[in-house]
Design goal:
Elements (H helix, E strand, L loop, with lengths): L5 H7 L2 H20 L1 H11 L24 H17 L16 H21 L2 H15 L1 E20 L17 E19 L4 E3 L8 H4 L2 E9 H9 L1 E2 L4 E2 L6 H7 L1 H4 L2 H6 L19 E11 L2 E8 L3 E2 L4 E2 H4 L10 E5 L12 H4 L1 H22 L2 E4 L7 H6 L15 E4 L6 H18 L4 H6 L1 H4 L2 H41 L3 H12 L14 H7 L1
Length: 538
């Protein structure tokens, strides 16, 4: 076993690194023991695959029917369509109202913020994909996690420009040529709010946190961030303008690769890929710039204050701890830039059950009925035979069962016995109908199968309304839960990001012009505010 260098030993005893390491290891152990297996089962059911440990993966079912009825995927697609209709039925994707409608400045602020959010959510943020994917995550995992931040990136370059004197005339060299000076030019690449969904397996919180606000009450929040090696090295070369030092501590590539080993393989992430290769953790033989490095973003509460710092895995510090308010000044006291929502409420559970988990036994039962019925139909159409051992029979011709074909044997009466198989009874189909009804009741679906299974109600218009009302109420409940736990907190953080960081004059002008054209406001209301006053209103 190789010895650890002395400076590495001292670094591993750093109290901040020790705190982050212990928090990550304890939360990961709890996650692996209690939730990871269920998450992987949910992913498999969502992808219409038999989960790990299913009897259909055993050798006994190698030549039997192994169909998967996609009831789970169908119900999730139905709920995705419902949430799309709920939040994208009109052109306005968001509504903002003032607390005091009689205050003209609050009315101005609310209306401008509405159009700012409308612009950002339709132009710079892929809001449709983000919202639908967030709801899908909540239905599959039971929770959805997102990170809200202001995405700012600039590129600095140098160019030579003519040197001018105090009167603005060019300065000449001794040879008569125009003297030049080097000027630094800054080009802004990105300057907009961003919402980034975080995979559930990449976030660690304390399992004893409050179930109503797990992100805010957990003593730590650790995100495992997969990054390309070239991006990590760029962070180490970037200079902080405040300290004139690199933003991230410089580490050699070998240390970065060794520190990432603890987070390299993740069974939940592998389950997402199905039978495909994991594109994140797969390491090339040669260390290229596109090798994935796992960086830990740590937010810990110490001394009654939140601190943030980055580490390479749990081995090396990359940044010194800073107060969270310095990095995210737009946050309120006690708030963190992460939001964790869900679609099902379960009291006193940090990770509530998902819709997939609630219906998993019914999905398994539906698969069993369908596969047994398929096996029965195949046996009815292609009989099973008992053949006397050592009989002189053309077994291959018998197995092919070609219409109009012939099979050679010595004695047809004693060498082969055909086993009669009765056809599928109606009870198998009735059982399937009942399973469909039970599944739809829990998932909140109103499908054609439910209508056909309830012929007595189906014959009247009132019966159809009774069938759809229950499904609609459950679907509305899940959407309302999702909106209260994830959607509204996320949009509130985006509002505060806009209030604190928005400086794009074009976006502000567009928002002000559209607000002035708002038919709900009195004509000429915004003419009293100049572009400079907009910042004061926000």
């Amino acid at each position: 076993m190789s010895e650890v260098p002395l400076n590495d030993q001292l670094e591993r005893k750093d109290p901040w690194l020790t705190l982050a390491r212990e928090a990550y290891q304890s939360s990961t152990s709890y996650l692996d023991s209690n939730y990871r297996r269920q998450w992987e089962r949910n992913i498999a059911l969502f992808q219409s695959e038999h989960p790990t440990g299913s009897k259909y993966h055993s050798g006994q079912y190698q030549h039997r029917s192994r169909l998967f009825r996609p009831k789970t995927r169908s119900s999730i697609r139905t709920n995705e369509a419902a949430v799309t209709a709920a939040f994208f039925a009109t052109e306005d994707v968001v509504s903002v109202y003032p607390q005091n409608d009689s205050d003209p400045e609050q009315r101005a602020s609310a209306t401008i913020l509405k159009h700012l959010l409308q612009y950002r959510l339709t132009k710079t943020i892929p809001w449709f994909q983000t919202l639908v994917a967030a709801y899908q995550e909540a239905l599959v995992f039971g929770t959805v996690i997102s990170h809200q931040y202001w995405d700012y990136k600039e590129v600095k370059s140098k160019r030579k420009v003519p040197l001018l004197d105090e009167q603005g005339a060019p300065v000449l060299n001794e040879d008569g040529t125009v003297a030049e000076e080097t000027e630094e030019e800054v080009e802004v690449i990105k300057d907009c709010p961003a919402i980034r969904l975080v995979a559930s397996e990449n976030l660690r919180i304390d399992p004893a946190a409050e179930w109503i606000d797990p992100i805010g009450t957990s003593p730590f929040v650790i995100e495992v961030v997969p990054m390309y090696l070239q991006d990590v090295l760029e962070r180490m070369d970037e200079i902080d303008p405040k300290t004139n030092e690199p933003k991230w501590r410089r580490l050699d590539v070998g240390k970065l690769l060794n520190a990432s080993k603890s987070s390299e393989f993740d069974s939940t992430r592998q389950t997402r890929q199905g039978k495909r290769q994991d594109p994140i953790s797969e390491r090339r033989e040669d260390t290229s710039e596109y090798t994935t490095i796992f960086i830990h973003k740590n937010i810990v509460r110490k001394g009654g204050k939140d601190w943030i710092f980055y580490t390479a895995g749990t081995e090396y510090m990359l940044t010194a701890p800073k107060p969270l308010k310095e990095v995210y000044p737009h946050l309120r006291d006690g708030e963190r830039p992460y939001v964790m929502g869900n679609s099902v409420i379960e009291a006193h559970k940090v990770y509530p059950a998902s819709m997939v988990e609630l219906t998993q036994d019914l999905q398994t039962a539906a698969n069993d009925i369908a596969n047994q019925r398929a096996d029965n139909v195949q046996l009815v159409l292609n009989k099973r035979y008992h053949i006397r051992r050592s009989a002189n029979i053309d077994i291959h011709a018998l197995k092919r069962s070609v219409p109009g074909g012939s099979v050679m044997m010595d004695d047809p009466h004693t060498d082969v016995a055909m086993i009669p198989t009765p056809d599928v009874t109606s009870s198998a189909y009735e059982e399937q109908d009942r399973l469909n009804i039970d599944f739809d009741d829990i998932a909140g679906n109103f499908s054609q199968g439910s209508v056909q299974s309830n012929r007595m109600l189906n014959e009247t218009v009132g019966g159809m309304e009774m069938l759809s009302s229950n499904a609609n109420s459950i679907m509305e409940y899940m959407i309302r839960t999702f909106a209260d736990t994830w959607l509204e907190p996320v949009l509130m953080q985006i509002v505060r990001l806009e209030q604190y960081y928005e400086t794009d004059e074009v976006v502000l002008t567009v928002a002000a012009n559209r607000a002035e054209q708002d038919e709900n406001m009195e004509p000429g209301f915004y003419q009293r505010f100049t572009d400079q006053d907009i910042d004061d209103i926000l």
